[in-house]
Write a structure and sequence with these properties.
Low-confidence stretches: none
Radius of gyration: 18 Å
Number of strands: 7
Helix content: 40-55%
Strand content: 15-25%
Length: 195
């Protein structure tokens, strides 16, 4: 568990859940949890279709399972993972597994965003837009796009970037971009599991 600690106007603050798990819950202690179902958030059934996964931070969790499943099924569709966090050295969750998938070719593309490692902040939506033409091309090939992670900022920022990508692919037509997103969502090819 990565405990959250931060300063707010000179006052030390901490994450309620992360510090409870990291400091207050005794080893072997019990904790009540619940499962929030997301019935359509699973890899596409057509193993030949491209899959774009956007999961910064803990949003990586379902995409590990997606990739494990596609690997086990022998899926031939392309896979693209957009992942990132603040610092590569501290926050590259499942580095060895992800790099192995990239090395084996299961991950066709791997786009990593480390927002605090350089002079400029780089986020997953930054990398999406830098690869706008290819992202749109994958969707035109019947691909699906999945987003998992922070609902308060990341999901909205990613969706705004996705809409700009669609508008670019549709000759700058913002109305058509919104309709394209709606059509993908209706076809379960645009899925979000945000919290």
């Amino acid at each position: 568990v990565g405990e959250v600690h931060y300063d707010l106007d000179g006052r030390a603050c901490k994450g309620v859940a992360s510090t409870h798990l990291g400091k207050r819950l005794p080893e072997g202690g019990m904790l009540g949890v619940y499962v929030q179902k997301s019935p359509h958030f699973h890899p596409p059934s057509d193993d030949t279709k491209p899959l774009i996964m956007i999961g910064p931070g803990t949003g990586i969790a379902p995409f590990r399972a997606f990739l494990e499943e596609r690997e086990a099924r022998g899926a031939t569709g392309k896979n693209w993972l957009f992942f990132g966090d603040q610092h590569e050295a501290l926050d590259y969750l499942y580095r060895d597994q992800i790099n192995a998938w990239y090395g084996s070719g299961l991950l066709t593309n791997l786009s990593l965003a480390w927002s605090r490692d350089g002079a400029d902040k780089v986020y997953v939506q930054t990398l999406l837009e830098q690869n706008a033409d290819e992202v749109f091309s994958w969707l035109e090939e019947g691909g699906a796009i999945y987003i998992c992670g922070d609902a308060s900022r990341m999901a909205a920022d990613v969706e705004a970037a996705v809409l700009r990508i669609f508008a670019k692919g549709l000759n700058g037509d913002e109305t058509a971009a919104t309709a394209y997103l709606d059509a993908l969502a209706a076809d379960h090819r645009y899925q979000r599991d945000v919290y």
